[in-house]
Amino acid sequence: MAKELTVALIQSHLIWENPESNRALFSEQIDSISDDVDVIILPEMFTTGFTMRPQNVPFEEKSKTIAWMQEWARKKDAAIVGSIIDSEEGKFYNRFWFVAPEGMSTYDKKHTFTLAGEDKVYHAGTSKAILVYRGFKICPLICYDLRFPVWARNVEGYDVLIYVANWPKPRISAWDTLLKARAIENMAYCIGVNRIGKDSSGHEYSGHSAVYDVLGNPLAYSEKDEILYATLSKEHIDTYRNKLRFLEDRDEFSLL
Prior knowledge:
- By secondary structure, the protein is an alpha/beta fold.
- 25% of the residues lie in helices and 31% in strands.
- The chain is built from six helices and 14 strands.
- Strands 5-4-3-2-1-14 form a six-stranded mixed sheet. Strands 6-7-8-9-12-13 form a six-stranded mixed sheet, covered by helices on one side.
- α1 packs parallel to α2.
- It is globular, with a radius of gyration of 17 Å.
């Protein structure tokens, strides 16, 4: 079982509703990663930006993007992860894809962002996802999910939370605070990958992508267009969970 997991966070601007151009943009960035990494994380809706017009994106773009992720996963021997627009039985989803060399997993965003009308356009997911990759249990979540600690509560003993987002600048203080809180309360590494730049509606994004350890200490943080790196340690998780034992006192509950 692996004792460490190295992650690369790609904090970038996005080209509005243009999957082909965004794939080309991220291809350059992924290709520039020379270090051996296990997981490469892209922002929420990384091929389009946070659009409420999924009908503007041709249906075939999904399969092109998944094939592109599979190709890079093989080339880098690493999981390529992020959310894209997906559709199923006539419903649109904001779907997180975790594409590894060995296979794929998905998670549908549970909390659709009502302030932007996401709930009117995208169907909300109903299931939490926990996946095992290279010895680490990972819980993938998306943007607005960050505001709902019950949904993220660590009742499964996961090791890593990953949030991908298009979190705007005016509320970036909440992003910083909640990422750190999710790490501390769940005694898990917490990773947040946000975009930068402006979208077609003029909303500005300031990044603040980060990695926090189980005590809430920052391992990586940036407000620039760049790639961040961090190495997660099983020993760190086990040491502080065994020493502090906070998770043993968590409340028991079920989600309907």
